[in-house]
Amino acid sequence: MTEIDFYELLECERTADDKTIKSSYRRLAMQFHPDRNPGNAEAEAKFKAISQAYDCLKDPQKRAAYDRYGHAAFTQGGGGGGGPQGFEGFSDIFESVFGDFMGGGRRQAGPRRGADLRYDLEITLEESFHGKTESITIDVAANCEACDGSGAEPGTSAISCPTCGGRGQVRAQQGFFVIERACPTCHGAGRVVQSPCRACGGEGRVDKTKTLEVKIPAGVDEGTRIRVSGEGEAGGRGAPPGDLYIFLHVRRHAIFERDGTTLAARCPISFTTAALGGEIEVPGLDGEVLAIKIPAGIQSGKQLRHRGAGMPVLNGRGRGDLIIEIAVETPTRLTARQRELLEEFRTSETGEESPQASGFFAKLRGMFEG
């Protein structure tokens, strides 16, 4: 299962304040509300996803747990149970965050969930535009096949820890307080292996290289985080595995720059096209050639917007815009005939052809004459 980061769903930075998150949620909720998109299953799914993300991030405690554990904070075996709606077992998350400060805290006995893994993946802007399925190879601690992850030699099994009686915790008296800590014998597992598996040395895990096919949706941006459930490190002795988090990095493009769903490109045009107007062709990332009309008398720095030709909306519908910034290029190599024609044009100038230049120099003359 692939899950998109809550901050990505709400189109917010991880450092966004509550007001920004709320504003972004309201905007997206209005855009994808089922009443505004009747019969649109994609819009309904998007609406549910952003509602779930906002339900988590609007609550300071849930957000703190999510920032530390990600989606694992709301799955069984991931530091807490339930989901953002009910957030069952949040006390376990709270104790995991603040337990050491409070003197240890209560912890459930049993093997710990496997660690999460991070994988950094670089893609091109074109791949971000279209989406793709990427094959990645990772080195991971996987369940030992010989003992099926139990850590015990085949034919045997783990027994209840004699030190803690299977509780995984031992108590110690300190003045008026009774402190519970992880059992030093079973390390909180509650069970011990008497006959360790020879294949994994009793760990229940072995190092393994595996290849995964990961779907990257269209519209992902720099820093987008994709969660692949259950593909992290295997848990100790049968405990649930961690998750794999893929962090995406979009390679710089030679022509286009990106800002959210907006694409921008600087386009040089000849000074004759700028003066007389015309049409230029710009290839889009989707392969379609866009015809951009140039109005007569356009100046350098002028921006022309082509709606719907930008990046696709992540997990949504529609596309952003393409902005073309005009750069008028002065010719540097002229034939004799071209120079002759330009000389004729210069001698016929009245000043009205270039009102900005005329106005500027008129002001300068006024300054000195005054």
TrEMBL record:
Cofactor note: Binds 2 Zn(2+) ions per monomer.
Xref: PROSITE patterns: DNAJ_1, DNAJ_2, ZF_CR
Cofactor(s) required, per the database record: Zn(2+)
Binding site for Zn(2+) 2: C161, C164, C183, C186
Single Gene Ontology MF annotation: oxidoreductase activity
Pfam families assigned to the protein according to its UniProt record, in alphabetical order: DnaJ, DnaJ_C, DnaJ_CXXCXGXG
Location in or out of the cell: Cytoplasm
CXXCXGXG motif repeats by residue range: 144-151, 161-168, 183-190, 197-204
CDD domains documented for this protein: DnaJ (cd06257), DnaJ_C (cd10747), DnaJ_zf (cd10719)
Residues that bind Zn(2+) 1: C144, C147, C197, C200
Zinc finger residue ranges, CR-type: 131-209
Keyword Zinc-finger: yes
Domain J: 5-70
Domain CR-type: 131-209
Keywords carried by this UniProt record: Chaperone, Cytoplasm, DNA replication, Metal-binding, Oxidoreductase, Repeat, Stress response, Zinc, Zinc-finger
Coiled-coil regions listed in the entry: none
Quaternary structure and partners: Homodimer.
Family note: Belongs to the DnaJ family.
UniProt free text on domains: The J domain is necessary and sufficient to stimulate DnaK ATPase activity. Zinc center 1 plays an important role in the autonomous, DnaK-independent chaperone activity of DnaJ. Zinc center 2 is essential for interaction with DnaK and for DnaJ activity.
Described function: Participates actively in the response to hyperosmotic and heat shock by preventing the aggregation of stress-denatured proteins and by disaggregating proteins, also in an autonomous, DnaK-independent fashion. Unfolded proteins bind initially to DnaJ; upon interaction with the DnaJ-bound protein, DnaK hydrolyzes its bound ATP, resulting in the formation of a stable complex. GrpE releases ADP from DnaK; ATP binding to DnaK triggers the release of the substrate protein, thus completing the reaction cycle.
The protein, known as: Chaperone protein DnaJ
Species per Swiss-Prot/TrEMBL record: Sphingomonas morindae
Annotated gene: dnaJ
